[in-house]
Specification:
The complex is a heterodimer. Chain A is of the alpha/beta class. Chain A has six helices and nine strands, in the order βββββαβαβαβαβαα. Helices cover 37% and strands 17% of the residues of chain B. Classes of the chains: A alpha/beta, B alpha+beta. Chain A: It holds the Pfam family DUF934.
Chain lengths: 172, 550
Amino acid sequence: MPDTQLEHAQTLIKLGQPEQDDWALSRHEEALPGQRPVIVPLALWLDHAGDEGLAPWLPSDTELTPELAERLAAAPLIAIDFPAFTDGRGYSLARLLRERYGYGAEVRAIGDVLVDQLYYMSRCGFDALALREDQHLEDALRALGAFSVSYQPAVDSQEALFERRLKEQKGA
Amino acid sequence: MYRYDTYDQTLVDERVAQFRDQMARHLAGRLPEEEFRPLRLQNGLYIQKHAPMLRIAIPYGMLSATQLRRLGEITRRYDRGYAHFTTRQNLQLNWPALEDVPEILAELAEVQMHAIQTSGNCIRNTTSDQFAGIARDEVEDPRPWCELIRQWSTLHPEFAFLPRKFKIAVTGAAADRAAIQVHDIGLRLWHDDQGELRVKVLAGGGLGRTPMIGDVVREDLPWQHLLTYLEACVRVYNQFGRRDNKFKARIKILVKALGIEEFRRRVDAEWAHLKDGPQTLTREAVEAARAHFIEPERRPVAEDAIAAVEALRGENRAFGRFVTNNVTDHKVPGYKAVTLSLKRREHAPGDVTADQLDAVADLAERYSFGEVRVTHEQNLVLSDVPVDELETLWRELDELGMANPTVGTLNDIICCPGGDYCGLANAVSIPIAQALQERFEDLDFLYDLGPLDLNISGCMNACGHHHVGHIGILGVDKKGEEYYQISLGGNASDDASLGKILGPSFFREDVPEVIDKVLKVFVEQRHDDETFLDTYRRIGLKPFKERVYA
């Protein structure tokens, strides 16, 4: 496969900051690109376990079984695809990777990644956000900081607000 | 009622700022309509037939006098001086200008209100019993639990893009006034033999295109696990609910496709990981929620005042009718809950004017501790009226046109805005309601019919809950013509059932005559003390069909 078909994230936000990206992305189901490092479809990655220049991307309908999660533990990063911004399955996948399976390396959102999803994504454990190419970086950075308070525990905070309130009352 | 602390206020203020930013980007062309759409919907903003529509959340139906006055001001300043209460305890403005909406939301936030998640494919406003906290048949006040659910579901980061909308209703009483069996998740609070609170969890109920009664996922969930269990249910839905066809995307389709056993197995497998996690409720957390719903300081009411009201019921026929139909018993002797009827011939069911909103705010302060509830039947309730003030309240309501003594009768029609306003509707619904109210306005006739729910929807999205009306009317479109399909035998309460379609649909002008024939069959065939629903369940659809299509 010619490497010209590879995608590069125009704008990557990592841990809240814009960052230069080394990883290319291939959506080709069968052909393994020559370039490294490269993110490839999950099935292809599973077939080439041991190639350290590869990382998998998961389609949004991936059923994250314990067996799959065990294999994914070795990945240098895991990307989760948003085929449409209205497809919310990726949020659950990211939380499962982080909270259930304790995956600690980069979890990257790819595909239809728009400014107004970023806050939710970061709460669900995505630490790298590959913005769709038409998105504005300034808008994105502003949207990430839209909220200073949240009710639910998620990956970013293990404490429900009701617990925090009780603690503060006791402390006061 | 629940009062915001600085966390709640900050979140709502930040939400307004976020939406202002989104609106600005949209108007500047940086956020195209198809991408703006889910964002505006999750802030209650629809683009309708004639104008935008803004749906404002009234969490589990509770409103303060201050909030009512602010709603009155907003309808005057940004709309045409009236608003519409919906079947899900929300309030809709029909004529706001698109660019004004961030400002409206900011003004709502000042009185601890918002429009968060009143539309869109997310967890919607949690609804409940309008008599919560005062009902005689209540075992547990559902409002603290609704508030815990409200907080859990508000801006839930994982569930903002579900396959479809998701509605939760909660009851804590013996009689279900929250229609929990026709919600995506219905919750019933009950006490076990040891007096421990448990939650019965139903899933997969719903109206719309494919109406279904919910199945029991769990009979006896211990209260500590309510939020983690809900999270497991919604996560299973988020992952496995259909996304290829919006008409098959509700959780009810998933529950039916998997079967309730397999759905329960998946929820339990998910829950096994979440159980006892950080959202597990503690007694302290529940007590903190309950502290927002304390009993008001009710003054004692003299015994002879109670007797005097009973005497007046006999003497004054109009007052007697009002008490019989619009006044509900209270758990505290000497107090009553009063339903303010929003069903008047000149107005669409559920509509209120700005002046009425102000007037109700005054009445709430003078008669009922400054609080009002919204019912899913599109009426309002003053929940704590001392009986010795009942007569003066009634006279004031009468002057306001809100004492129509027809609550629970055929005249108390549930109705969606329909084709007059709604972009989705196939047919008008308000004129049907008005034609029926005009035809069947004789009070003696209405009382003789007994309790009768007549529900009208202008399309199969079923906002008017026609499937669960004892008589349901559905507007349908056939080659650009409006027709009406009639169904019988639906019921939203404890023994919930879905109506059966009578037969081929009718022209708009024929609907009152058809309903008249249906009622005649009931009157002729009923046994003593039978309600319409009883008679229908005994004799079935056939006699009605034979008369109507004769």
